[in-house]
Amino acid sequence: MDLIFCSNDSDNYHFSDNYTRAMSRTKFLLVIMLIAFFSQDNLQAQVSGYVFRDFNANGVKENTTSYNEPFVANVTVTAFDSTGAAVGTMQTNSSGAYNFTGLNLPLRIEFTDFDSTDYPAAFGAGNGSNVQFYTVSSSNANFGINYPSNYCQASSPGN
Length: 159
Known about the structure:
Layout: E1 5-7, E2 13-15, H1 17-38, E3 44-53, E4 76-80, E5 86-91, E6 97-104, E7 107-112, E8 119-120, E9 131-134, E10 143-146
C-alpha cells in the first residue's frame, strides 16, 4: 500500500483517507484475532480416537501379515475441562472407538478401566499415554495397550 501524505493550509501533514480506512480495517481484524485467541477456552471441540492392542509396542496400530492389532472395547474414556471437572465419560465401542463433541477446550482425556494385566503401550506416532491434553480438536486421540506376557517365552530359543 502506498502512503499518501497531504498538506493542509497550515502545513500540518496527515495521512490520506485511504490510509485511515486501511488502518481501521487492520485494527478490526486484529481485534477479531485477539478475541479468537483469548477465548480459546470457549471453543467447541471434537476429540475422538480409538483404543488398540499394540502387540509390537511401537505406538502405531498395524494390520499387516506380521501384526493384526485389534481394537479394544469397553475402555472408559473421561474428558475433563480446565478446572478438572469431568465433562464427559464413555466406553469405547466394539470397534475400540470413542467420540466427544461439543466440549470446551482445553481438555484432558483419561483412559481407565482397561484390564489390570494390561499396560499403556509405548508412546508413538499413533498413540498417546493414558492421560492426554488437547487445546485443539483431534480425531487421533488414540491409546495403545499391551500385555507384556504376550512377549515372554517359557524357555530361551535353542533350549
